[in-house]
Amino acid sequence: MLTQEVKELVNKGEMLPLMEEFYTIQGEGYHTGTAAYFIRVGGCDVGCHWCDVKESWNADLHPPTHVENIVDNARKYADTVVVTGGEPLTWDMSALTSKLKESGMRIHIETSGAYELSGEWDWITLSPKKTKLPTQSVYDKADELKVIVYNKHDFTFAEEQAQKVNPDAILFLQPEWSRREEMTPLIVEYVMNNPKWRISLQTHKYLNIP
């Protein structure tokens, strides 16, 4: 049972439910192949049925951790940090990103955009979900739009989302891992016919790394 003091610190973003943190290679999107320190924050109510980290959904399962401790660990490994989840924007990211910036870190976020943008980011990856669409604040600031393709209707969804992001956002289509054999050829054909899009793959899974 969390004390009232801890609950207040979590609500302020001065502590966060930390699921895991690890140094690895970015496997998806624009920065594929680059080294980064990942901070995975617990808590998500978006509820994608094909989510591969469903254990992140319940924030209560992950210990509230002071952002100073998270930043101390991150600075040992890399100058680029990726904050992911769960859905990190469930929480106020201002304290975490402020501390990371003070340490000279470059900060990326991977988000469904379901909540208002908080924190200061160098790169915003928006991966929208049909169950809870992004807020306008994230559409406006997204550096890349990454749509997961599970079935053919997701191409229509992708085009709808591309109309909502800012014109500078880089557009990616990524096959959902369990459906990659069926969907990858369709994505290849789609991108060749619609070259404003690029293909993203979960290369970390091919490399068998986190």
Automatic annotation (TrEMBL):
Residues that, per the record, bind S-adenosyl-L-methionine: W50, C51, D52, G86, S127, P128, K129
Chain residues that bind [4Fe-4S] cluster: C44, C48, C51
Gene3D superfamilies noted in UniProt: Aldolase class I
Residue span(s) of domain Radical SAM core: 31-210
Top EC class of this enzyme: lyase
Enzyme Commission identifier(s): 4.3.99.3
GO molecular function: 4 iron, 4 sulfur cluster binding; carbon-nitrogen lyase activity; magnesium ion binding; S-adenosyl-L-methionine binding
Alphabetical list of InterPro entries matching this protein: 7-CO-7-deazaguanine_synth-like, Aldolase_TIM, rSAM, rSAM_sf
Keywords: 4Fe-4S, Iron, Iron-sulfur, Lyase, Magnesium, Metal-binding, Queuosine biosynthesis, S-adenosyl-L-methionine
Residues at which substrate binds: I25, Q26, G27, R40, T84, P210
Cofactor note: Binds 1 S-adenosyl-L-methionine per subunit. Binds 1 [4Fe-4S] cluster. The cluster is coordinated with 3 cysteines and an exchangeable S-adenosyl-L-methionine.
Cofactor(s) this protein cannot do without: S-adenosyl-L-methionine; Mg(2+); [4Fe-4S] cluster
Any one GO biological process: tRNA queuosine(34) biosynthetic process
Pathway annotation from the record: Purine metabolism; 7-cyano-7-deazaguanine biosynthesis
Reactions accelerated catalytically: 6-carboxy-5,6,7,8-tetrahydropterin + H(+) = 7-carboxy-7-carbaguanine + NH4(+)
Protein family per UniProt: Belongs to the radical SAM superfamily. 7-carboxy-7-deazaguanine synthase family.
Protein function: Catalyzes the complex heterocyclic radical-mediated conversion of 6-carboxy-5,6,7,8-tetrahydropterin (CPH4) to 7-carboxy-7-deazaguanine (CDG), a step common to the biosynthetic pathways of all 7-deazapurine-containing compounds.
Subunit structure, interactors included: Homodimer.
Listed name of the protein: 7-carboxy-7-deazaguanine synthase
